[in-house]
Amino acid sequence: MIHSVIALLQVANPNLPPVSGMAWFLFTVLKMIVLFTVYMVGVALLTLAERKVSAWIQDRHGPNRVGGRGGWLQPAADGLKNFMKEETSPAAANKTLFVLAPILSFIPALTAWSVIPFGAPVPTRWGRIDLVLADLPIGFLFILALTSLSVYGIVLAGWASNNKYALLGGIRSSSQMISYEIAMGMSTIPVLLLAGNVTMTSIINQQAWGGWNVVNLTIAFFIFMVAAFAETNRLPFDLPEAESELIAGYHTEYSAMKFSLFFIAEYAGMVTASALMATLFFGGYDVPFTSADNIGPYSGWLSLLSVGIFLLKVMFFLFVFMWVRWTLPRFRYDQLMSLGWKFMLPLALVYIVIIAVVQLGLSAAGIQPGMLYALILGSLNVGLVIVLFTILDRGRIISPAYGRMHPIEVERLRRVTRRAQLAAEGRR
Q: For residue 12, what pLDDT is reported?
């Protein structure tokens, strides 16, 4: 057994063909079991991580009763509690769609992982094992198409519940997700322009030779990240669930495990969005300072290292999701829609034109993709970031506290308020 593991981790032929036949089938089943087991356990532990991060930010302890001082068994206790709870079903609800809605919310986020590479290929005696469940030639388009289906589960939950608060939450969510989904799709076009392909592996390999896209396409990364927060209904975009307005939004009438499945779907969406950001803009599983993980010779040690690097990137973005939730206030609904349609969508369209023109110019100048190519794109993006956030925005467009009223008018109203307060104190 030990000798087999050591042999697996040795350097292999770079031209090693992929596994086929029965070996391919067995390794695919094994990858499915391992990946989705880790995925589901990780999603459960994220509920604990969310509480721990919020406690750290708010200077308190967080869960520390179940499973020792660290509270490690808190997710298991929550799951047991939800299994023991009574399943309620409103009398006037559409029973079929009411049950189907939580499932439709969860499946797209889970299935999208099937085309995301999570490590460098592993050499074996049967051939090369690619650490991705299905390396589709249209992998990126598959992700966009699949993740867009999650809105149906939320809309059906709001409508099937026959509750006005749930319906309002479902309508809010559908308009929000459709609005930001357009900006998210547009922000990925510059990534495809640089990669010249829609396969996830090609996007990773392009970043291995030309630098991470977060440097080359900074504005696209910003748009994608903001849209990812909106797509996952996370603060400051949690308007569909706004407790102060809609009780719990589209899952007001849900209980027990159906209620929990919506939260599992939310965290699963966070994991998928984090994996996409890591893959599209931060090099994915690419190991820095070596090309062996991209073109060979492959080795087991390098594959393990690439998986570790990918997981670290995903966990970093998961922490950002939690950090933002416990730091920023919620947008008003008019601000949310205005940001999506009046700012992010035009910005994404303009950015596509700029990147396409720059690529044509560099191609006409005979500059091929490489370090000089990446240096020019990186310098351009630094200039665009300065122009966008320092000159054009000046903390007004993106700030959730920004209102449409002119500052002079705000100051006039403040003076009127102060005079009224002074007059009231004088009458006393």
A: 44
- 102-116, 199-213, 216-230, 389-403 — most confident range: 216-230
Are 118 and 307 within 8 A, CB to CB?
yes
User: CB 283: neighbour CB atoms within 10 A?
Assistant: 23
Question: 400: which 2 tokens?
Answer: 């959730």
The C-alpha atoms of residue 403 and residue 9 are separated, in whole angstroms, by: 59
Tokens of 81: 């509690």
Q: Is this model's pTM higher than 0.90 or not?
A: no
| Whole-number Cα distances in Å, 30 to 8, 33, 302, 393 | 16, 5, 20, 50
Residue 411 domain flag: no
Structure tokens at 347: 């910005």
Q: Does 289 fall in a domain?
A: yes
User: Rounded to whole angstroms, how far apart are CA atoms 331 and 336?
Assistant: 6
For residue range 206-232, list pLDDT tens digits in order.
Answer: 888 878 889 889 999 999 999 998 888
Q: Is residue 79 part of a domain?
A: yes
CA distance 213 to 277: 10
- Does residue 412 lie in a domain region? no
Residue 375 near residue 213 (C-beta atoms within 8 A): no
**Parent domain of 368:** 2-400
Give the separation between CA 397 and CA 403, rounded to whole angstroms: 9
- Please tell me the total count of domains within the chain: 1
pLDDT of residue 256: 79
